[in-house]
Amino acid sequence: xxxxAPVIYSSQAYKASDGVLASPMTLQLAExxxxxxxxxFLLYFNLAAVPGGGAVPLFGQLxxxxxxxxxxxxxxxxxxxxxxxxxxxxxxxxxxxxxxxxPSASAFWVDITGRRLT
Length: 118
Prior knowledge:
Distance between the termini: 5 Å
Shape: globular
Helix content: under 10%
CATH topology: Jelly Rolls
Radius of gyration: 13 Å
CATH architecture: Sandwich
Largest sheet: 5 strands, antiparallel
Low-confidence stretches: none
Order of helices and strands: EEEEEEEEE
Number of strands: 9
Strand content: over 45%
CATH class: Mainly Beta
Structural class: mainly beta
Mean pLDDT: 93
């Protein structure tokens, strides 16, 4: 796969889950805010649509309550490549657990920047 056009996604409001892109991409930067009083997990899925509860994420990050986050991953499987690859598509969801998706009614503001993969 080669790197293509930019992907610029914003939830544009507080959301509990959303799809970013329904095709392969590399996530280069994820930023946002957890306005809730407790820490929650932001889980990323290699799927076009957010799956149901019990799904295993590609990866995730714990975001403290009342905190902003900024994460710029490096893909260690591809020397020199910035970003985390999603071979199918990219979606995300807020979860109360980190290893398995336990959908939360709580919402985050999420902005994602990356590149399409062709």
